[in-house]
Design goal:
By secondary structure, the protein is of the alpha/beta class. The chain is built from 29 helices and 19 strands. Helix 2 packs across helix 6, helix 7 packs antiparallel against helix 12 and helix 22 packs across helix 23.
Length: 818
């Protein structure tokens, strides 16, 4: 063994040994027990200083992607105050068996609190409920129904639709009142509006005894290990439970130990991974420089499938897969929070695409398939090493036969799909360097680490897609100006400069970007139109597509018009027409438009630039999906709008080609969501239906339909209306509308005869409100409301919602604000 390898191995072993000792050391008494509560066998850690005479108690709940061991730093912070801390693994997490659902997690957490109280293991009046993320939301909900001393909610999951969080992403549909003595903490860098919703939780409904705390320079995860959060939690617990404040930050040695051991494993595993993947060592690098071929280089001569055909093919495969899954789920035995459906979808879709392209698969055999299989083996081995270490020191997440019995199934399902996806995309060069997804896939197959820098304007689907492929995603503020440190280009350059042996594609200046389109997109357009193309329409972003394709087409026929489609707010149209750079203004379309002119935008090849509004872009994008089956992004809608505007003045011999830039699956939470468009006041009026009005009311409105039964008493109905601030309420019997109550009329009757309070509602109710179908237009709803104070929304024979005159007025007012 060479000295360098020996030093590496020795350092790796030393880091593992030292890290293990540090990670397992603790000055506290820590015991694991199983507490059966509400039918849930919750594996629970009990942490204290070893003193049976404690000052109080804390029930600490973890988040959706966590477990009890991740909460150890916070738990030890509470224990240092001589509090006894109970940290359970929620169902389907850590050591507690599943199944998991949001409702079951809440039920089990509430059952744990009541079980501990029944056993006299805690005194509810001396108990704090605390939690992070999902655990924070559960703590608030459980405390609202059970008397406890106080609540500490750290970055709680959203409990209402606001600040860009859609209703379908909420773990719970109802928002309870904020309990007294609630401390809500959020970090500076939170996903999906959590920070703003947490702030509003306290400022709008927290009361004088509650408090909101903002932690700067922290993330949704880092707050779990932040001394400032521990300090604030200790101060709140001392204030709530009324004992002297003692600030004792727990030792970070276990965390550093876990990270040190992880670094040791990577040092030891590096040579193994390099050898397995055939990555060049010093000797092979010299051979390559001398001209020896790289046996692991994937072939680049395989033809790329045309983009339009790929979209149609994949859409057809996905549709057939979804239909098939309605009748048969081959992986139904994988019971992992809807994992069986997702795994079956990947497996069936992946195998179908591979079967369709079996000739291309056969052409890749054996060299490319061998490289991929080696990479999969190396990834699995390294995954086992890393997760074993994390389980032993940091997270307790994988040593469960029930979970690992499912892993091979999920691995095979995902592998089939990703291999099919890579086959369809073809070589990276055939798609241009601007394709983030292509780069992430290539990096995953080749074993490279990939880091993407995006603004917070980008859809959450893009970020999740890249992360699912193993890439790291860095989010920067869209408000950062060019040249400032926080601007996404500056951030990308800084990361590249700070990362050894890295490559920065720089699609804004890299000449390979337009060159790829000059060599591929341009010839493809020319050949497939038999040279008859008269107009080419594309967006201007990095400049690669329009510059490279435009250059090729101009060389073939200088009379071909190159049209740039650009959103209002971008600077390109003004720059093309005047040569002046103006300040950009905000717009919602992603992927095109700029605030500067990148070097790859060769404006000399562009004949005209057409501005398109966000509304028109999104309408055209959605229209393309409904009429042509092309599920696309907003920038494609921009291109289509410009193409239609150009073609309106052309004769029948003209051939206009526009670019379909992106798949619509990256924008499901944006312009393909009626709720998002309604929030941005961009939804076309004919798309505003009764169901949409009912489902997107103001945050303070009840999330579920509130009704009474004919057998309920008048007193119960009045109490419910008073509690929820309702002036009218429908009367339903087994889901059917049988009557209605209006508060003012019922009260008038009660004033005359108080005995009516104990009467059944059927004795005083009036005729039912009229009903409309869930797809009824807003015009139909308005017409019905002219003769009734409210209308009921019916879906498949069930009453699912109610719309009042105030709801329609709120909708019209919000539409007029624009």
């Amino acid at each position: 063994m060479k000295p360098r390898k020996g030093l590496r191995a020795g350092l790796g072993v030393a880091l593992c040994v030292v890290g293990f000792v540090l990670a397992r050391s603790t000055p506290y008494r820590e015991t694991s027990v199983i507490i059966r509560a509400a039918g849930c066998p919750l594996v629970t850690d009990v942490i204290d200083r070893g003193d049976d005479d404690v000052r109080g108690y804390v029930v600490l709940l973890h988040g959706l992607s966590a477990n009890k061991k991740i909460m150890a730093y916070l738990a030890r912070g509470f224990a240092s105050q001589n509090l006894r801390v109970f940290v359970p693994d929620l169902p389907g997490h850590g050591r507690t068996p599943g199944p998991f659902s949001f409702e079951r997690a809440e039920t089990c957490a509430e059952g744990l609190l009541r079980e501990l109280s029944a056993r006299r293991a805690i005194d509810p009046q001396r108990t704090l409920l605390a939690g992070h993320s999902l655990g924070g939301a559960i703590a608030i909900r459980v405390a609202a129904r059970n008397g406890v001393a106080g609540v500490i909610a750290i970055s709680p999951a959203p409990i209402r639709a606001a600040h860009g969080v859609p209703v379908d992403m909420l773990p719970y549909t109802s928002s309870p009142p904020v309990p007294a003595h609630t401390l809500a903490i959020s970090a500076a860098f939170e996903p999906l509006g959590i920070r703003e919703i947490t702030r509003d939780l306290i400022t709008e409904g927290g009361g004088a005894t509650s408090k909101y705390l903002f932690v700067p320079h922290a993330t949704h995860v880092s707050v779990l290990y932040d001394p400032r959060v521990v300090h604030a939690s200790q101060e709140w617990s001392a204030q709530t439970l009324k004992f002297p404040v003692e600030f004792n930050a727990p030792s970070a040695a276990p965390l550093f130990g876990g990270l040190a051991g992880l670094a040791g494993i990577l040092l030891l595993a590096g040579p193994f991974v390099r050898e397995t993947l055939g990555m060049p060592n010093e000797r092979s690098r010299s051979a390559n420089e001398a001209g020896a071929p790289d046996t692991h280089e994937l072939r680049s001569d395989l033809p790329a499938t045309p983009v339009l055909w790929v979209l149609l093919e994949v859409t057809a495969v996905f549709f057939v897969t979804v239909v098939l899954l309605r009748f048969w789920n081959p992986l139904s035995f994988v019971r992992l929070y809807n994992g069986s459906y997702f795994a079956s979808f990947l497996l069936i879709a992946g195998l179908a695409i591979l079967l369709i392209h079996r000739k291309a698969v056969r052409a890749c055999w054996p060299a490319e398939i061998k490289a991929v299989l080696f990479a999969a083996f190396a990834a699995l081995a390294l995954h086992l090493l890393v997760t074993a270490w994390i389980d032993a020191t940091l997270a307790e997440a994988w040593l469960s036969w029930a979970r690992w019995a499912r892993f091979p199934v999920l691995l095979v399902a995902a592998f089939a799909y990703l291999l099919a996806e890579e086959l369809l995309l073809g070589p990276v060069a055939a798609r241009g360097m601007g394709s983030r997804i292509g780069l992430a896939l290539a990096a995953a197959v080749k074993g490279y680490k990939c880091i993407f820098v995006m603004t917070d304007k980008a859809s959450v689907e893009k970020s999740r897609y890249l992360k699912a492929l193993g890439a790291d995603v860095v989010i920067t503020p869209v408000s950062a100006k060019p040249g400032t440190p926080d601007h996404y280009v500056s951030t990308a350059r800084r990361i590249a400069a700070e990362t050894p042996n890295s490559f920065y594609p720089d699609q804004y200046s890299n000449p390979a970007n337009p060159e790829a389109h000059y060599r591929t997109t341009g010839p493809e357009v020319w050949e497939q139109t038999d040279g008859r193309i008269t107009h080419f329409v594309a967006g201007l972003g990095t400049g690669g597509t329009i510059s490279g394709t435009g250059r090729f087409l101009k060389e073939k026929n200088p009379h071909i018009q190159i049209i740039g489609a650009d959103p209002y707010g971008s600077i390109f149209k003004t720059y093309k027409e005047t040569g002046k750079l103006v300040e950009a203004t905000p717009y919602l379309v992603e992927g095109i438009g700029q605030e500067i002119v990148p070097p790859n935008v060769h404006i000399r090849y562009v004949d005209e630039i057409i501005n398109v509004t966000d509304r028109e872009s999104f309408e055209m994008s959605r229209l393309l999906g409904r009429m042509e089956g092309i599920f696309c992004g907003g920038s494609t809608g921009t291109n289509l709008a410009a193409a239609l505007r150009i073609s309106s003045n052309l004769d029948d011999d003209a051939v206009v080609v526009f670019i379909v830039c992106d798949t619509g699956e990256h924008y499901l939470s944006k312009h393909h969501s009626d709720e998002w468009l309604k929030e941005k006041r961009l939804l076309e009026p004919q798309r505003i239906t009764a169901g949409l009005i009912s489902g997107t009311k103001k945050p303070q409105a009840p999330k579920a339909l509130v009704f009474v039964k004919p057998t309920d008493t008048v007193a119960e109905a009045l109490e419910k209306m008073d509690e929820l601030g309702l002036t009218q309420i429908p009367v339903l019997d087994e889901g059917r509308a049988v009557g209605s109550l209006r508060e003012n009329r019922v009260l008038a009757k009660v004033v005359r005869n108080r005995d009516l309070l104990s009467s059944s509602i059927s004795d005083v109710m009036e005729s039912s409100f009229p009903t409309v179908d869930v797809d009824a237009s807003s015009t139909e709803v308005t017409r019905r409301l002219q003769t009734s104070p409210a209308v009921l929304v019916e879906e498949y024979g069930r009453i699912t919602g109610i719309i009042t005159r105030h709801d329609v007025l709120d909708l019209k007012l919000s539409s007029n604000v624009q």
